[in-house]
Amino acid sequence: MRKTILDCDTVTLDEENGALVIVDQTQLPNRIEMLSLTNIEDIWEAIYLLKVRGAPAIGVSAAIGVYLAVKDIQTEDMGLFMKRFKKAKEYLATSRPTAVNLFWALDRMEAVAYKHGEGSVEEVKEALHQEVVRIREEDIEVCRRIGEHALSLVQPQAGLLTHCNAGKLAAVKYGTATAPMYLGQEKGYGFHIYVDETRPLLQGARLTAFELQSAGMDVTLICDNMVGAVMKKGLIDAVFVGCDRVAANGDTANKIGTSVVAAVAHYYGIPVYVCAPTSTIDMALSCGAEIPIEERSGDEITEMWYEKRMAPQGVKVYNPCFDVTDHELITGIVTEYGVVQEPYEESFQKIFQKAIL
Fold this sequence. Notes:
By secondary structure, the chain is of the alpha/beta class. It contains eleven helices and 14 strands. The chain has helices at residues 40-48, 55-70, 78-92, 100-115, 121-151, 179-187, 203-214, 227-232, 258-267, 299-302, 344-356; strands at residues 11-14, 19-23, 34-37, 159-162, 192-196, 218-222, 238-241, 245-247, 252-255, 272-275, 281-282, 322-325, 332-335, 338-340. The longest helix has 31 residues, at 121-151. The protein starts with 10 loop residues before the first strand and ends with a helix.
């Protein structure tokens, strides 16, 4: 039987070979290629070049990457081991600036290392290994629970729109924004799903449309500038998007163009739900203006997808990777602990209390 993208783990740890194994998302949809990465430089490059992407998948990859960077260190000197660990952690943290899951996962691994620092180096290594396994397994459960909460917000046969890729390819399984779609498919909801192409890197066209079609869903691909047309025709009942960071006031950073979708949906009275694991909530940032926004090479706009350059030589190019959607445009933020609404800072505190319990 021919392998499909649904048969592949987006990100996993190859225990036998000591490798991070990922789907190379830059090759999709034309070719399914698995990469086996064993050194930290290749893992950094895979995150930076979007071979692995999506906040949850980045977090899992970072945890595996920092573990692989230190698992073969041969020393009993805990001070030397922790120095090497910190260097690896700081290096991986430079790969992407916006996705808070990257830093969340690395900080979580560091906390485990320090917690076991009174033991032997081998004990710390094993603790790090167990934490990698735990982070990956938790991601599956978190996404499933987000899907269940999100599914309660819509009716069977609904028309849903999503932007970028917050699907299986952005996580370990289910995804965030696509989790209700996968669960709805299992329950026979018969959703009609519209997917923005998501320029300039076309994650909607190359990834979301690809994986949802592979799952047998009713998918229609549209250009980004068609969102107003499909909403005006009454084809969209709800918008589900993911995000890479949530500020304390509920502003969210997601792939560029998300704020446009939200603004148009607000105009037409269509609810917008941001699907966000609590790991993406950054209470240290008061609002979206404080979220660092990654800027990428202008080549992604002028020539990346073309046989010949499609813009004049020397033209200035502005290529922010993300934009911020103001919390006023968001109907609710769907977490693994439920759907939260304004006032967001107060609602997040209640969510975190649930997490502790």
